[in-house]
Amino acid sequence: MSGSELESVHLSSDGDDGELAKSYAASDQIEQNFDNDSDNEVNADEEEEKQRLIQQVLELQNTLDDLSTRVDSVKEENMKLKSENQVLGQYIENLMSAGNVFQSTEPKSKTK
Length: 112
Prior knowledge:
The chain is mainly α. The protein is 73% helix and 0% strand. It is rod-shaped, with a radius of gyration of 46 Å.
């Protein structure tokens, strides 16, 4: 037998190739079912991970929205307080210039 010649070998003793084909088909089906089960498990795991990530993104979006709202309210409060401080500062300046209480503390010269 040379390297280019192939010989047919029967695996069953009675030469029934139909049983062998059925065996291969069953083996292929089992392997395909196993692959499908593995794919289903992987798909289920991927789906769970995807849902978890989506939930996490939604929570982070809500947190960001809450923080943005808080920043806006703090900015508004800050503007109000600055305005009040300006009004109070002007009021104090007006009081100081109108009253004698905060005038110079130089001793008055006494004339005799």
